[in-house]
């Protein structure tokens, strides 16, 4: 396996809406500092933000790992939480299991997973009900 040029892991606390979005903002700064092309930064940050928000909204805790390799950026998002019953439904635009409280905060439009999938070059998701969900996302560095 190719050695990572950069790697960092960030912890997320479920339900912490006050700090929601901070990790994707930090990742954006890191990618800009590393001179990653802006269109790739934008797509990576959109997907990371959506994943981060899903952890905050639906899990007890989780993490985001940023790994930069010579040809792509790898984002791994893992959580310990309720899991997803029906992944094929969950990746459909507009499908949401958001609570009324989440909707009042402006979330729950059912665009999280669809946005993650749309912005990733490679999108892999695994979930087990009652255990949690993991996403493995890749973004090509060669435009």
Question: Which helices and strands, and how do they pair?
Answer:
Layout: E1 6-13, H1 22-33, H2 38-58, E2 59-68, E3 72-81, H3 87-90, H4 100-104, H5 112-119, E4 122-128, E5 132-140
Antiparallel strand pairs: 1-2, 2-3, 3-5, 4-5
Oligomer: single chain
> Approximately how much beta-strand content do the residues carry?
25-35%
- The CATH class assignment is Alpha Beta
Summing up helix and strand content along with how strands pair, one would put the structural category as alpha+beta
Number of domains: 1
Number of helical elements: 5
What's the short version?
The protein contains 5 helices and 5 strands; from the N terminus they run βααββαααββ. It has helices at residues 22-33, 38-58, 87-90, 100-104, 112-119, and strands spanning 6-13, 59-68, 72-81, 122-128, 132-140.
Describe this structure in words.
By secondary structure, this protein is of the alpha+beta class. It has five helices and five strands, in the order βααββαααββ. It has a single domain, classed as Histidine kinase-like ATPase, C-terminal domain (Heat Shock Protein 90, 2-Layer Sandwich), CATH 3.30.565.10. A five-stranded antiparallel sheet has the order 1-2-3-5-4, covered by helices on one side. Helix 2 (38-58) runs antiparallel to helix 5 (112-119). It is globular.
